[in-house]
Amino acid sequence: MRKFNHSRIKIARKSGRMSMDDLVARMGDKAISKNSISRIERGLLCPSARTLEAIACACNVPQSYFYDSDVSIGKLDFRFAKTMPVKEAERIEALVTSDIQKYFSVEKTVNPEGTEYNPLKRMSIGTYDDVENVAVNLRKKMYIGNQPIFSVYELLMNCGVRIIEVDIKNDDFLGVSTFVCDYIPVVVINSRVNTTTERKRFTALHELAHLILNIKPLSETAGDAEENKYSDLSYKVSMKRPTTERICNYFAAAMLLPQPCIYARLGHRRTGLSLSELISIRCMYGISIAATVHRCHDLAIIDDTEYDNLYDNMIKKNTMETGWGEFPIKEKADRMQLLEERIRKELL
User: Fold this and answer.
1) Whole-model pTM?
2) How far is the C-alpha of 96 from the C-alpha of 175, rounded, in Å?
3) β-strand partners of 189
C-alpha cells in the first residue's frame, strides 16, 4: 500500500496559488480549520478520507497524487532571469515538482524497471578552456563530432535525460534542472518564455551544464592575482570572470556551435559580420543570432566595438529575431503524451 505524503498537500495548494484560507474556502461543506490544514501539511495530522477527497477536489488533483510514487526529487536548480519573490518562487517550485511527479508516474507505469544513463560523469570546471574541452568530448561520446545537432531534445533523451516542458505564467522563470532518484537527470523548460526553437535548445543545454558539470569558477570578487592565472587563454573571453551562469551559457553555445565550425564559417578575426552570415548559422546550427554574436565575441572573432554595434543597431531592435530565418526542426517535449497514448493502447 502506498504511503500518504503530507508534503504534497502543500505542493498542490501552492500549485493552485492558494493560501490556506483559500483552500478552506474551496472545500465547501467539507471544510476543516486553517490550523488543521497547517498540521496536515507538516505531517502532524492525518486527514480522513472525506477531508482528503475535499482537498483533492479543491486543488484539482486526483487523490492518488497525495501518495508516494517512489519518485525522489533532488534539489531544484532554478534559472530565473532576475531575483524572484519568495512566495512566487514557492509557487513555481510547487508546479514544477507536481509536473515532474506526474511525468515519472506515467513513465513508471510503462517501464517499471527504469533506466540509468549519464552521458558524462561530473567534471570539475573552472575556465572557459575547460568548457570547450568538455563540449568536444561530450560531442564525441554522443557520436555527433562537429555536425549540427538535429534535435537537442531527442539527443538528450536518447542519453537518458528527461526533458519536461511546463507552461508557467512568469516571464522570469526560464528553466530548472535536478536529479530524480539520485541518478536520473531531468531538465524542465518553461515554454512560455522559451518560445523559439533556438531558445529551447539553448536553455536545455544550459540546464544540462548544471547537471553534469561540477563548476568551480572564479568568484565575482576574485582579486587580480587569481584572475591572472587565466590570462594565458588561447582566446580572450569577453574580459569577464567565468562565473557559474556564464560557464553554463558558454557550454550551451559551444555544444550548439563548435569552435572549428564557427572558425571555418567566419574566420578567426573579423572587423564586422553581416546579417546574412548570422542567419545562415542560425538556420544550420539552431542557435540564435544573439547567442552567435556572443560566441563570436567570446572567441575574439569580433572586438568590443563590433559586438556593441551588432547589439545596439540590430539585435536590440529585433529581440525575437523575427524574419531572420529559423531552424527547420521544431523541438517538442512530447514523451509524456506518447507514454500516455501507449498506456491507453497497450495496458488498459
Assistant:
1) 0.80
2) 10
3) 165, 175
